[in-house]
Design brief:
- By secondary structure, this protein is an alpha/beta fold.
- Among the domains are: 42 residues, no CATH class; 186 residues, no CATH class.
- The protein is built from 14 helices and eight strands.
- Strands 1-5-4-6 form a four-stranded mixed sheet, with helices on both faces. A two-stranded antiparallel ribbon has the order 2-3. A two-stranded antiparallel sheet has the order 7-8.
- β2 and β3 form a beta hairpin.
- α6 packs antiparallel against α11.
């Protein structure tokens, strides 16, 4: 039998995914790196504004420049993009056009994925995501849908691989439970904070606290993340709650009317469902991915609780902010190095 090859057609949306861009502006700040850019994109940006982009030594890549307040050089006072406003969406770098959407090629077709470090994705009234709405953002330079990665087989455990068809059967059961209101902790069925090889959670938290960049939105998110780990694993540790430089973006999202209010559990279940669907973890066994997600979910729940208890933030919004933090750090080198140490 011929081996099934990954493909991007048909485009597939996870049922229940909701998103449209409202211009909340969070993705255009130093919550993460604004890039990387290709050589061609760098030239195009510099034609618009010579100070708009440059080589960044920290990221070792061509990146959009940020203003002193941490926002993109092209971020307007109303949180919209100057390049988009003046020249249209096609003039923006591909990474800007694409975020928070992604595409993973599988033997069944191209899975449209979404990031949750974006209040347009997680908060307020949002229409259901459709293939037609996502397609313009997912096209590559040749005008066709371009995949971020390709997945054919899935590792369930260190020595257990299954076909993609078998994985889809198992996955469908997990997604159905999440959509049906089953607590995500029960669906993951994994203990948070598993044993780490040659390290401890306290040591890893200390590393993040020592190495997180000062004064950036990402740096504050890292402080929330690391302080929460210490609060959960170190008896008697008093968590020092950092600032929230991203609060204005969530303020804008919270002001949008919603036909039905989401609960914190809805926010967490939606995030876990997308993490499973997106298959970013596919190079690791799923049992380790479950432990990873269970740990970040525990951290997110504690952050949400503190936001409600100490800042008076509504719990659904608190959950959305918490998911932003744990997903953001989950995409960073801090977490990818920790994930390699997880033992189950």
């Amino acid at each position: 039998m011929a081996k099934k090859q990954p493909r991007v057609r048909p485009l597939l949306v996870r049922p229940g995914s909701r998103y449209t861009c409202f211009g909340d502006g969070l993705c255009c700040t130093d919550i993460h790196g604004l890039g990387p850019l290709t050589k061609k994109e760098l030239v195009q940006i510099r034609k618009i504004d010579p100070d708009g982009a440059a080589w960044d030594e920290g990221f070792e890549a061509r990146m959009l420049n940020t203003a002193p307040d941490g926002g993109c050089h092209f971020l307007l006072p109303d949180a919209h993009c100057e390049i988009h406003a003046r020249y249209g969406p096609g003039a923006k770098p591909e990474g800007c056009r694409r975020f928070p959407l992604g595409l993973v090629a599988t033997p069944a077709g191209g899975r449209i994925t979404t990031e949750h470090r974006c209040p347009c994705r997680t908060l307020g009234d949002r229409p259901l995501l459709t293939e037609e709405a996502a397609l313009p953002s997912l096209r590559g330079p040749n005008g066709k849908p371009r995949a971020d990665r390709e997945v054919v087989k899935i590792k369930l455990a260190k020595k257990v691989k299954v076909s993609f068809d078998d994985w889809r059967t198992l996955e469908a059961e997990l997604l159905e439970k999440l959509a049906g209101g089953c607590p995500p902790e029960e669906v993951l069925a994994a203990d948070p904070f598993p044993r780490l090889k040659h390290s401890s959670w306290e040591d890893e938290a200390e590393t993040i606290l020592e190495e997180a960049p000062d004064g950036t939105a990402f740096g504050f998110a890292a402080l929330w993340f690391a302080e929460t780990i210490r609060g959960l694993v170190v008896d008697g540790h008093r968590v020092r709650v950092p600032l929230r430089p991203w609060a204005a973006a969530f303020d804008r999202a919270e002001q949008r009317p919603a036909e039905s209010a989401n609960s914190a559990d809805d926010v967490f279940a939606d995030w876990i469902a997308d993490e499973i669907w997106a298959l970013k973890w596919y190079e690791r066994p799923f049992d380790r991915a479950r432990a990873d997600l269970a740990t970040r979910l525990a951290i997110a729940r504690d952050i949400a609780w503190r936001l409600e208890a100490e800042h008076g933030v509504a719990l659904a919004r608190a959950a959305a902010e918490a998911v932003m933090v744990v997903e953001l750090i989950g995409e960073s080198d801090f977490w990818t190095e920790i994930a390699e140490l997880i033992r189950v």
